[in-house]
User: Fold this.
Amino acid sequence: MEIKKNVAFVGMFGSGKTELAINYAVMLARREEKVALADLDFVSPYFRSRDKKGFLEELGIKVLVPPGKYIWADTPMIPPEVFGFLTNKEFRTVLDVGGEEDGVVVLGYLRAFLKDTTTFFVVNTRRPFTDSVEGIVNFYRKLETRAKVKFDYLVVNTNLAHETTEEIIKEGEEIVESAAKELGVPVAFTVVPSFLADCDCKYEKFIIDRYLELPW
Amino acid sequence: MGEKIMVKGTEAIGEAAIRAGCRVYFGYPITPQSELTEYMARRMPQVGGVFLQAESEVATVNMMYGASSVGARVMTSTSSPGFSLMQEGISYMACARLPGVFVDVVRGGPGLGDIQPSQGDYFQIVKGGGHGDYRLPVFSPSSLQEAVELTIHAFDVADKYRTPVVIFADGMMGQMMEPVEFPDPIDPSTLPSKDDWALTGAKGRKARYVTSFDIDPYKLEKMNLVLQETYKEIEKNEQKWEEFMTDDIEVLFVAHGTVGRIVKSAVKLARQKGIKAGLFRPISLYPFPYKRLSELAEKVDIVMTVEMSSGQMLEDVRLAVEGKAETPFYGRLAGVVPTPGEILEALMKELRR
Assistant:
């Protein structure tokens, strides 16, 4: 698997893009790389990576969000520094892209700056619309058309939050594997929550912590 | 019941409506409920239903009136300012005795407000934001599994009493994600017939009409009295609530929706400090469970209400408590969500008084 300087996470609403983007940025930061995380989600009103700005900055991550009070808005605002960080050779930049057809259009806008970017299509097969091979293939193609950018990999992120089990993850790997064959796109890795770190997976494991938990 | 899936609150409510046999949805986008409209846009064609984006919320509610009058299970969803625009039509539907389910994913106000979660529309939703002597059954979920159950229940209540019903979901209920299990779908053709009142075509029978109007005040009063009889039945039969750790209470919290869930954590924190706290969570806000809350109030000196508002449900709590206990209040406004620690601190302040 070849992963370029920058990475982008795309997918349907609630597929786990933001949680993955945060975990990916944290992983890079812990390897002492220079990391920027750009919150390009102008679709979701809550539970965005900007909510974790303070935590990420403490780890030395540069967090790119709309200025000032506009972090509370759901308007299509792209932090202007993104262009610089995407081309800056010293920084690994993680793009957290908004969900579905409307969220992914931002990639088309950034297209000229994405040569050094690997794009992951994140799938939770326990979500509406991507619970079958047919659904995944359909929306993968729809989002790719809207993004005007080829996606590079599929990511298995099948989960039920705290109720995730090894069986549920394996069931997700099976479905995504079949979708990958039909699309002719490889599977990059399987996302595994830290409480199942030892589970037996078909693909490489990417172990995550949950940062977007409800605080009560 | 099928397998569990991860859903957003808006999707949970949308899917539950479809499983309840709803095949007609009208909507207009507004944050933080737009995903419900989007979900219905994708799902309705899959089940042979109708999805129609109206040109405004005023149009939406009148489409609800029309589709309901011919007997369809109909739903719309909106958020605070959009719900304000629907009030005239809701009052018309109430008077014309037309069932329909309204979902209000409440956000910070007043005015244009913001897009964060709030419960500041309690007066509007529960006490009636439109004109005239009408009431609406209102259900407030505190988890997404409960949102599924209450949405299905809302359709049954709407049909049984021939009334609009509201699901009061604050923004957090709309946007949060949880694993949920859906019941098997109801085949719409097996739902109880509405042929005794709906406008199904007058061939072979006398023509009938559905209206919220009578120029003769004595006749209009009769229509009103039918409504009032219906509300008595609703008050008798449709009260719902949850009690959490109330067996040995010294102090009682009252909270609904997302705040009910947060207060559960505050109750546990209080108990770690040796304070025997409990929670009374009204699920039906109309009919409000006055009687049960009144019984519980006899056991305590403090009944503390917590809301994401300036203290609106508080008025119903005070009607139930009738001075039997102190009734302090803690609230956050404009989309700020209270934390369990804050709530506990507010309670400690009352206890030190």
The longest helix of chain A spans residues 166-183.
